[in-house]
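Subject: Sanity check before I submit

Could someone independently write out the structure tokens for this chain? I want to compare against mine line by line before I put it in a report. The sequence has 372 residues.
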Amino acid sequence: MFDYNSYQNLISAFSTLLLDEKTKDVTFYFPESKKRIRAHKSLLVRASPVFCTMFNGSFIENTDVIIKDISPEAFAMLINGIYLRPTKLLYLDEADALYQAADKYDVIDLRNVSYDYFMKMCRTSNVFYLLERALMYSWKDLRVKCEHYFRTYAYLVLVEHITTKMHVSDTVLAHLLSLEGICIESEMELYQAIEILLDLGLLDSCEESIKKIRFLTMTIDEVKSCKLLTEAEKFKITWKLEGKCDESEVDLNMIDGRELCRETKSRLKIPYNGWIAFLAPMRIEFWLQVLTKCKNYDVTSYRLFNLTNIFQDDETQQIDQIIGDKKRNDKILVFNEDEKRILVEILSNHKITDTNHSAFLKELNLNSSKTV
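---
Independent answer below. Compare away.
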């Protein structure tokens, strides 16, 4: 039976031991920062097989150990965790640093503490960051969880990165863009996400992510508007879309060896009957951020405002007045500041709220405390 008082006494004893500098018999020195961290060998060898080998081998008589590949802050978390488990983590970077230190010294309990923190913190605001770690450390459960978030909340994941200006890895974005069943209105918007992230300087390169876009599921006008495609690439894709060649004749190996996706089936998913109730508010939130944050991005107008069940009659009239005939001709528009101001005001009237977000989660039978 668990004895809470005994446990507290044990924690208190180890806390006292951690502060007892006189009995510590090993010093870890960090030459770059010139910092020192002292500890008890007897505790370290019981917590870590790496420390056990170290202090029972060539370092048996050595009281000074030089550490070059771990920061003193991360190493201090490792030592404190050995003395004072469980360790409380507050930030993702902190958890990542502890995991790397615990992994190097094979302290399984602390490694698990970091992993559990990553799993608990998975949400729309850090999907890219966590997926990058999941791929780096081969964490299947975390990878699957991040993939689920992006499939369901692609718009909101992108909104978070636009508003917080978090950098996105091309490799991670390419991984997400290779998924099936993404809840987004069109393949064109997945492509536009790449353009937008590049425009904001949040994506350094699209070398891998552009290869995951299914251009053969777009319309010809959409393909022609893609600024990241070369003219040769546009020609070959439209040649296929116009039905001038069969499947076997499509060769999307392009200039400089860039091979584009040959998939002709849509991978977009409508979560339940009536996608507007689920996707429209999230999509509006996404494009609202694009209009307010992007200075140089051209907007495909008819896709952005083709939500007649959402806007009021007077709002629809204002939108039509701004877009005019170009809306029906599928043209790319550049809005001036006055037009942007009006459109932002209209979109703001319909932006996502905590209330309708909770309704989405309930509809999907998801736990809002884990996914918001």
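---
OP: Matches mine. For the report I'm noting this point. The chain has three domains: 25-121, 139-242, 273-360.
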